Fold this sequence. Notes:
- The protein has 15 helices and ten strands.
- By secondary structure, it is an alpha/beta fold.
- It is globular.
- The termini are far apart.
- The mean pLDDT is 95.
Amino acid sequence: MNAFSDLLQQDGPFTKEQLTAMIGATGAHQTLLHQKANELAVKHCGNEVFLRGLIEFSNKCRKDCYYCGIRKSNRHTKRYDLADETILQTALYAHENNLGSIVLQAGERNDPLFVDRMDALLQAIKKATNGELGITLSLGEQSRDTYQRWFNSGAHRYLLRIETSHRDLYRQLHPDDERHDFEARIEALRAIKETGYQTGSGIMIGLPGQRVDHLADDLLFLKEMDVDMVGMGPYIVHEQTPLADQADGLWPLSQRFSMSLNMIAALRLLMPDINIAASTALQAIDPMGREKALKTGANIIMPNITPASNRKDYLLYDNKPCTDESADDCLSCLNMRIALTGRKAGLKAWGDSPHYFKKN
Ligand code: SAM
Ligand code: SF4
């Protein structure tokens, strides 16, 4: 116990072996790790939990990631693409309900029509909310020019998970073609950062073939990339995907969940002043999953405000939560859930990453 509690008192930097010990922590060690992470989150990012209204505006995607339910080749997915007016109204709903920012997320598309459309939409949202609503994008890999255009039009944060920082594992999770190139994904992350966005990345936990030491490398990768925000959570099988065939060898759900909390906590020790999201996938395993993450180092929650009629079609994995509730249900239950953790919902504020402003 002593060596482990001594480790938690360090300011870092942490070695791969030390991080591996944190990720695998159980029992009393795990409790200590989670307490320390919670303490650091409040100390460096404040007692508020910031909310981002998540708008999953389209499930059309040009890619075929083997884990994802809305991959291009899934013929069972009913494709949708919300009208710009609907997206704008949903953004206004967020603004009127005191959410300081939104996340616009969709499958990856990079055709010129889509790029122009996003550009105009960003400007319209900014104008309609007097520039008050913060906008995060999660729209996959784009050219430097596109990232710049969208930044100029009002987006200021961008999320692009690396999914796994392990090159060989990445290859096993994606088709071997130019759309799914590991180096290109890293280059895209660099481009996002150099454009000036608050840059977010992350990984999935418990993928087929993934080991605990890969996860430690993932944490070191996020540190090395000096990201401002992280969203990471458990990998959950979607039956209509190629990876569903490998479900037998997976860590049990309870272990994927526990490791995910440990990953959040270890990351908080490694990068104390970044924003860390309590991912929705945690809630697919444990109904209180996101609240538990808020007690182990996370400080961001992304309530789903996608119009209810489309939610069931943005099915990345089986048993995705909140697919049949209206936006109101989600917001009110979330405020209550945050209060239960002893934290306060940070309303009307963008809730930017303190780390970003220390660097810039
Ligand atoms: N298309 C964009 C991209 O890939 O960056 C943004 C949307 S994508 C659906 C958002 C994230 O969903 C991915 O980065 C991935 O980590 C996560 N995801 C996809 N399938 C998943 C699964 N089966 N289990 C858990 N997370 C999953
Ligand atoms: Fe498309 Fe993103 Fe799903 Fe990959 S993870 S198939 S890019 S939506």
